[in-house]
Specification:
Strand content: under 5%
Structural class: mainly alpha
Number of strands: 0
Radius of gyration: 21 Å
Distance between the termini: 52 Å
Shape: globular
Mean pLDDT: 80
Low-confidence stretches: none
Number of helices: 11
Length: 240
Amino acid sequence: FNWKERITSKKGWHLVGQKFVNDWKMAWEDILIGFTIAGFVAVMVPADFWSALFLADATNIPSWLVTLENAVIAPFVAGATFIGSMGNIPLATVLNENGVMFAGIMGFIYSDLMVPPLVHINAKYYGWKVALYIAGIMFVSIVATALILNSAFSFFGIIPESAKVVQEVTQFKIDYTFWMNIAFTMVTGWLIYLYKQHKKEHGASMDMDMEGGGKIKKVAVTLFILINAVGVSFFIYIKF
């Protein structure tokens, strides 16, 4: 592998474009679902629900027990959302805003490998016994990792004390972020162009064909696209 040769060659940049598009093909549905569900949760689920579920206001319970409860319950919350990969990060922000402990946030983020769609795919290949065994091992590993991270961050005194309210970080503004979005949109267009050039020269033989979550996921994606389109239209109408 000669990175200097690749970075100066046409073929190397074509491979960059192909990798970029394939990664987005794999992740865009989870990201869409994650952000949409996070939006609904942030607006419609009261903070009292999360406080009760994660014992945020339980002053009469030892803190170590609350930490353990947060780490244990978070993977089940993640599983209930059916979100995997990067799509669970927006909802983790909502949980953080509502007082969920650091161990719970870490447990939630790491739970993308035991969400129902992935367990179902494992069951199709290996059978339910093996799929549930893998999910169980993942659950134990996730809880242990969340507790270890919580202890380590607590030891060094670097656990985040609070989170910004979601509404404070999601407002549309003409600032440096806007211009960075414009710039990277142009970069995205260029990478898609490189991908199309690579596909034209080599065909689709190297494209990634990932098995998704089935019909339910496709219906959810279509529905969420419509919901977001309507929401953006109303936002533009109200603002402008």
